[in-house]
Amino acid sequence: MAQGYFCLVLHAHLPYVRHPEHPSFFEESWLFEAITDTYIPLLRLLEGLLSDEVPVRLTISLSPPLIEMLNDRLLRERYLAHLNKLCQLGDKEIIRKHGTPHLTEVARMYRRLLYETQTWYADTYACDLVAAFRRLQEAGVIELATAGATHGFLPILKTQPASVHAQLQVAARTYRRAFGREAPGFWLPECGYYPGLEAEVDAAGGRYFFVETHGILNASARSPYGYLAPLACPNGVAAFGRDPASSRQVWSQHEGYPGDPWYRDFYRDIGFDADLEYIRPYILDGHTRIFTGFKYHRITGVTDDKAVYEPERARERADAHAADFLSRQVDAVRRYAAAMDRPPLIVALYDAELFGHWWFEGPQFLNYFIRKLAFDQDVVEMITPSDYLARHPEVPCAEPSASSWGDQGYSSFWINPGNDWIYRHLHDAGGRMHRLACRYREVDRSSPSERALNQAARSLLLAQSSDWPFIMKTGTAVDYAHGRVRDHLARFHSLCDDVEADRIDLRRLCALETMDAIFADIDFRLFAGA
């Protein structure tokens, strides 16, 4: 019998980016890269474990915007076109690298992966990755959780409680429609928690959520297990705290595995290195250089003179790092178990996109780690939050402290001099939506006002996304983030004005529904509050 548990949680999320008004759009490539580099590799990894009868229980949180984009017909078609262009580029790269054996080997690897991805996406999965995740959940391989409707940072939105309510309720509805069951738990966006938020988690049907380490350590009452067991909030909803050591081993810039010099360098890409005339057919508009995924160098070190990437050496490092990671978890469980009256629980939380997209060898690392955990030791068992609660229904009762997993552990990453201007507008819009939801709750469900208010609710939720202040803080695509907030709020107020004046322009409303085609079954009345 295992002495302790390991709960691996991957959070898959991207902001809702969809622009049917343009033939192609740069930010849509965020989704295309994640599908190619992370989601399909993860699915293939899990399918392989299932086929080989490897015992695995993995938790994956799929955010509602990601679910909506993966299900969107337009984005599916655009992804196939994107993938077809990359396959063509792969054919050309083998010819271009002819005469340099090491580079030709890497080029052949990329072409093989792209054609395999094309086959898996179009044929094996019929372009439906959500259904693929659903089948793995039904097979008992993974447990799927959810997040906020548009990943709004709830500790700042709490000044408008109806907005928090709508964020979680819409997320629960999206999950139910996608997977045919209730969401077991929530990855609170950015792990942002404030005391009392568990009431909304409970109202949305969630049995658990995740918090940063200090959310458990600074709770209203001290747990005898620290972050090695969940806390039961006063209403019974469980809060699982992140294990800092397992995070540091993967995330840390200095200690983390992805920084190993044998791994592939993310930033050296032919989209920026190759001659513009050669790369022109494969970049966004024929002028703007972008990442293509063809990268021929390894990290090497802090230098611009990068060595050539060697896939086999990188694979060996992924194997060694998986063994080291498992050894650390076994040692930690043995050490903790000696002082506890129940098996210690290590909760390892990561962004899913780290594995494959940012860390190319990440899926290989996970594959080796899971297989070694299953067959090379008997100290640690992989489980999900629901598994733990089923085995240990009695957990210490206390209320976690306000916290997030952002820089400095609270809200400074999402509200600072670079982005704080957005919140007075979000709060004002949230209050207006609440008042209109209360005022028009009896409106005829087939009326133009119903449609306009539902579209206004979509626009508000999209404006509330934590991705926009995050981008403003990091300094990447700042103009786009500013534009998203302003556009969504402008659409919101215009729709509300039309409803209040009883002068709804159906052609314009139809255009907005086409532009922001998210949450088909949304009900603006959710903004009336609990």
Specify the structural class.
alpha/beta
Strand content: 5-15%
Count of all domains: 2
Largest pleated sheet: 5 strands, parallel
CATH topology of the largest domain: 7-stranded beta/alpha barrel
Q: Please, what is the average pLDDT?
A: 95
The arrangement of helices and strands along the chain is: EHEHHHHEHHEHEHEEHHHHEHEHHHHHH
CATH class group of the largest domain = Alpha Beta
Number of strands: 9
Give the low-confidence spans: none
Q: What best-fitting shape do the alpha-carbon axes yield?
A: globular
Name the CATH superfamily assignment of the largest domain. Glycoside hydrolase 38, N terminal domain
Helix count equals: 20
CATH architecture identity of the largest domain: Alpha-Beta Barrel
- Using only C-alpha atoms, the radius of gyration works out to 24 Å
**Ends distance:** 44 Å
Helix content: 40-55%
